[in-house]
Structures are given as structure tokens and as C-alpha cells.
Amino acid sequence: MFVDFLFSLRRHGVPVATQQWLALHKALSKGLIDDADGLYGLGRAILVPSESRFDSYDLAFLETFRDAQVADIKDAIKEWLENPIAPKDISPEAFERLTGMSLEELQRRFQEILEEQTERHDGGSKWIGTGGTSPWGHSGRHPTGIRVGGEGGNRSAVQVAGERRFRDFRSDATLDVRQFKLALRALRALAREGREELDLDETIDETCREGGDIELVFQKERRNTVRLLLLMDAGGSMTPYARLVDRLFTAASELSHWRSFDHYCFHNVVYSRVYKSIERLQSTPTADLFRDHPKDTKVVFVGDACMAPWELMAAGGALSFRQHNPSSGMDWLMRFREHFSDVVWLNPERERYWGHETISTIGRVIPMFPLTLDGLRDAVGHLRQGQALAGSKRG
Amino acid sequence: MNDSAQFEGSSSYIASPDLLRAVNAAISLERPLLIKGEPGTGKTLLAGAVAESLDMELLCWQVKSTTKAQDGLYHYDVVQRLNDSRFGDGDVKDIRRYIKHGVLGQAFSSEKRVVVLIDEIDKADLEFPNDLLHELDQMSFHIHELDETVSAKVRPVVIISSNAEKELPDAFLRRCVFHYISFPPRDMMERIVAVHYPDIDEQLLEAAIVRFYELRAVSGLRKKPSTSEFIDWLFVLIRGGVRPQDVAMRIPLLGTLIKQESDLDLVRQRLA
Q1: Do A204 and B82 lie within an 8 Å CB cutoff?
Q2: Which of B25, B174, B179 is nearest residue A20 as measured by Cβ atoms?
Q3: What is the CATH T-level fold of the domain A177-187+225-394, as seen in this structure?
Q4: Dist. CA A311–CA A269, nearest whole Å
Q5: What ipTM was predicted for this assembly?
Q6: How far apart are CA B130 and CA A374, in angstroms?
Q7: Contact indicator for A368, A383 with CB cutoff of 8 Å
Q8: What is the pLDDT of residue A126?
Q9: Which of A41, A77, A344, A373 could form a disulfide with A171 if both were Cys (CB 3.0 to 4.6 A apart)?
Q10: What are the phi and psi torsion angles at A110 (to 5°)?
Q11: Closest-CA residue in chain A for B173?
Q12: What angle do CA A46, B62, A51 make, to 5 degrees?
């Protein structure tokens, strides 16, 4: 059971190290844990050093210490309901019939199905996923009915875990400006250049070596050498993500640690011109970016990468009639990749839709990461890796 | 010796069962306790409460953006020595006179078990926690100038607080017992208030708590008011002789709770 818990944790993305696992065993052998609450609380304190993973811990705890996964299933349903894309295979008749259902009826059916589901274990959650066509589609119109969980009363450790109070802290959820800033701050490469400043430690050492005669030592300031070029999709399909992209932009532009920061907008994908402002009043030839930005500039694209295939692949694929594009968007992306050593694409679209043709095509050319805190960290890691490689080549 | 010591909260500090468990585990496993949580939930106060209830001395290390790991260990005062050598004050040959222990140095050389608080560790440079890994693991460090190793006679209880301004490195996190202080629910808040203002008018407290949780529930606040702000607010309410019905009707002295302009506007729109 215990080893199951360890692997369940790892499966849910809680990277438990052997060291921590042994510490938990030490706690057990010292008699620090005497009941389920203790196991839940102390297990979390020792194994999970970040509140962003508490929710995953709760899920793993539930999975291991309770046969059924009510909370998880409910979540899957909830997520499904909140998904704005309407299921395709609902017949108008079924729709009619189900909209006629009363709220109580829906709640009752929901309970029934939920109970049935807990008996079925794993198969059950699958069943919800695929069987989500008719009854649940309409339940979505009564979200209050759906969220009746039927829990309460005595709070056992499993129930506490079932409440999943830490869901809001998950780092794979999208977050605010400050958190974006923190993630971006990791993107730095310090080098000594620019103005000279007094190196106090070295001065003292030298002075001592000179037997007390003051010897001043200067050195250059440490400065971040990272240049950032941010290219954002401002097209119609990006509207749902406008606030999110805005927050990323705010974070990147407010951070003062770049050596240079530049940003442009595009629609769908870059063609021969990029735009300085969202209103698209001023534009710049895309080719100028290659001239104005050195090869080691970090390039970050932000966009849903979702468009008609010809918009990406064909010459003349730009939607705007004012924009003549003899080269296809894909060609331009290839040029970016050729010119700049570090290019990434951040996609606000959920990863499960990344099978879309243009998303996967672009993803093959430019490494793509989800626009979440975790995704941004991975992207920054990727950009830094390139930096390390370039550094070792130079060295 | 002190191994059996149990922290059970103190008369002035109300801790949740989870927190008590984490504190006692950290003491017993001899690992640092890392405390995170919203500002104003009593992270720093915890160390004081632990020290008080276990009857140990508390050593505080306030971390700032310029703090280096070395500062906590020892400082070799070269300038003083240079000065003394030029102007002939004291025995310059004895380097020991110019080695000054930092907080960890003091804790390690103490005869009794002490509580060390490393406050707001996230304020320092990204590499700061990594630089302390070995020292916190082994509870010892080396003084190069003397070629001596300072090892803890008794492993101190180390409590580290963080406001999550920077991510802490994984290697560091793995060595800690971690607790996230969540915002206290209503019943616990009542106990906390009782500790601070035992004679508060019940009606006033009732009205204030209702208003306070309403305020925290306003969505879109950039900075939700915290426990410490609530305590301050109660203080000014009591001092100002505000009547319970006034609190129920509007939120007097809102500035004590909400400090950002945009939040103030938001709250006025929604609640006032």
C-alpha cells in the first residue's frame, strides 16, 4: 500500500525523492504518525515542499487510500462542463428531451451515475470521458445541480483530501503577472561588462598583500546579457486569451533586467510584416528583425497556432488583403529558427488540442510550451539550455 | 535530551493541528521547517512561539536582498585588523579576535538547543539557499582563517519563512519539512482574536468577522486583507468606539484592511 502511494504520487507529478521517502519512514518509526490524519498531514509536510503540488498530493492520497475516486471523477466532469466547445453528436431530439428535465431530476441522475461510477473504479472515469455526449452535456446547463457532492459530516483524512482545497495553487494553472515575472527572471546570463566599480574584497586583499598601502581594484559590473524579442498573436482566435497574454507582456516589459526587450504583434503567424501596436497602425518589415536583433536574442512567440492549413503553408496565405506575402508563414518561421539560436513558442491553447494540424506542424519547427507557469518555466529552461550550449561552444 | 519536547502552540499563538504536526516532525527529524503562506498569517511569529513554548533561545536572521550565506556563518573583520595593525590596537596576531559569528555560527556554538529563524529567505539571491545546503545538513562549517570546523553541539531547531517571491531550489526543498499556512477559517479566527483581545465586545467581533470574510470573498482583489490586518482593524474599531451596527452597515476605517487604490475602488463598488 505504501509503495503504491509513492508511485501514485510520482504518477501525479509529485517528484518524491528517496531522501524524502526515507524521512517519512523515519517519522513513522519515531511514532510521529498515529492515525490517518497524521499520515495525511505529515506525509504532505515531508514529501511535498511546495503548495503548488498539494493538489496533486491530495489526488494521489485519494487514489491510494480510497478505492473509488469520487473527487477526481467529479473534477473530470466539471472540467468537461466548463469546456466551452459543444459536443458535436447531440441530436436535436435528445437536446429537447433533456432540457425538459427538472433540476432535481438531474441531481438525482447525477448521484445515481456517480455512485455507479465509484463502483467501477478506473473504467468509470473513462466512461464519463467518452460517454459525455448526452446527459452530461445538458447537466452543464445546470452546473449547480452537478456540483452536489454529497460529502460532509465527519471529516476523515480522505475527505479532507477530497476537498482539494489547494486546487487554486496548482502551477499548471495560469497565473498572474508577478508569477510570470518570477519565471522570466530565471532567464538571465550574467557577464561582466560596462561601467567599472570598486571591488571592495579584492581591494582589501591587495592592500593586505601590499602590507597596508591602499591598492584600489576595479572591476566591471555584472550585467544580464539576455535580449528578449516577444512576438504575440493578436488575432481573433486569441481574444479569449487576451488577458493572459497581456499579463505575460506586462511581466516581460516590467522586468528591467533585460539587456534589450522588443515586442511585435502578428496575426495567426508571422508574414512579411509585423506590427508594433495592437491597433496595427505601425508595421515593420519582418526581415528588419533579423537585421536589428543579434543571433543570440531569445525569441518567444505567443499564439494559439490555430489556423487554416493554407494560412500557414501557402504563399499569399495572409488573410489581410493589404498584406502581400510571397513567402508562406511557415517559411518565415523557418527563417526565424535559422537566424536565432533560441526560439520557443508559448501556446495558451490546452495541450490536449495540440493535435490540430497547424499546431503540430509549427510545434515540429519551434519547440512549443503551454502558456502556464510550468510551461513558461520549461520554456525558460529550454532557452537557457541553448545559452549553455552556446557558452560551451565559445569556451 | 530535548528530543521529546513537543510544541503545542502557546498562549499567544494559535496553531492548526497540521502546523503542530509539521513543527514537531521538524524538531524530531532534525530537519529545517520551511513555512510559507499569505503575508500576515504569522509565519515569523511562529518561531517566537516555538522558542517560547520549548523554552529555548531564539536567534533571528533577517534575510535581505544583499544577504550572503556567509553572513550567517562568520565574518572575518579584515578592515578592523588592518586598522589595528596600522594604529597598534590590541593583538593583531590573534585572528580569532577578528572572527565574528553570524546567527548560524552562534547557534552551532551554543551549549543549549536554540531556535534559529531564517526570515524571508526568498528575499536573498537565487543561489542563497543552495549555499546553505551543506551547513544546514551537517550543521557545521569551516573557518578557513583559523582552519577550524564549527560543529553544532546540539542541532538547533531551524525555522525558515518564505513569501514565495522566488522559487527555492529543489535540492533545498527536499531537505525541509514544509508547511503552508492557509488562511484561518472562521472558528480559528475567533480563537486568534480571543488571544489578542480577550474582552472584545461579542457583537462587534461577530459583525467584524462577517464583514471581513465578505471582503476577502470579493473577487479580483490584488491583495486580500490578512489576519494581521484584521487584528489591526479590530484594534482601531475598539479604540474608535465603533458600534457593531456601523460595521454591519458600512466598513469603517477600510484603509486599515485594503491598501491598494484599485482594490479600494473595487470594494467600494461591490460592498459599500
Answers
A1: yes
A2: B174
A3: Rossmann fold (3.40.50)
A4: 8
A5: 0.78
A6: 22
A7: no
A8: 32
A9: A373
A10: -60, -45
A11: A49
A12: 30
